[in-house]
Amino acid sequence: MVAYKLHYFEGIGGRAELIRFLLAYGEIPYEEVLIPMQEWPNHKANYPNGQVPVLEVDGKVLTQSLAIARYFAKKLDLTGRDDWEAAQADAFIGIIEDTIIVLKNKDLLMKMVMGNGNASAAEITEALTPFLERLEKHLQGTNGLNLVGNKLTWADFGVADWFKRYSISVPALFDSFPATKKFVDNVHELPKIKEYVAKRTIKFF
Q1: If the chain, 205 residues long, is cut into consecutive pieces of 10 residues, what is the mean pLDDT of each piece?
Q2: What sequence ranges are listed for the domain GST C-terminal (predicted)?
Q3: CA 83 – CA 86 distance, rounded (Å)
């Protein structure tokens, strides 16, 4: 049996959470190596690129969160029915990366991560609204349950997870985007995802 170890920060969802969603959905056993944030300077040099998450697979090491997530998505047949759908799924994953960049550039992301209340709901909403408008329009033209075709992909997990966590800082985030809210809620109602979320011990974003 393959042994998986996922290394990330203790108590933080961050870039490891999509990976955890995939592992939960696929019922894939794994061990977590959790690093307290305050101890990170002592561990950083031990990791390729000085970054986490890192996945160990029977002693081999894989870096970069999206590479790790895509690795499991392929194993679980969650990359789309064909090359076109796989590319579309990648494009939706790219939207997540775009939101992260925008929030970082506006000095909002770290405040949201630490949950210290200093991130303005109005500023967060303004930064995310263009992305939500595009998602809403897209979902209104589909079955409303999946971003790509009519089958679950890793993009559904990624987008639903990140926007759900964004809404922790802005509870009214979806007020003008009912199709997006329905989509996000549906993903979180999947039995294995619901079970994982109920048990997780994340303290910060």
Answers
A1: 92 94 97 94 93 95 97 98 97 96 86 68 92 96 88 97 92 96 96 95 72
A2: 82-205
A3: 5
pTM of the predicted protein model: 0.93
Of 144, 127, 130, 143, the C-alpha closest to 178 is 144
Amino acid in position 77: D
The rounded radius of gyration (Å) of the Cα atoms in the chain is 17
Is the peptide bond preceding residue 53 cis, with omega within 30 degrees of 0? yes
Q: How far apart are CA 33 and CA 56, in angstroms?
A: 10
DSSP state of 31: E
Structure tokens at 129: 């609204």
- What's the residue count for the chain? 205
Cα–Cα distance for residue pair 121/103, rounded to 1 Å: 12
* Rounded Cα gap, residues 173 and 130, in angstroms: 12
C-alpha span between 62 and 65 (Å, rounded): 9
Buried b (16+ CB within 10 A) or exposed e, 53-83: bbbbeeeeeebbbbebbbbbbeebebbbeee
What gap in Å lies between CA 160 and CA 188, rounded to an integer? 8
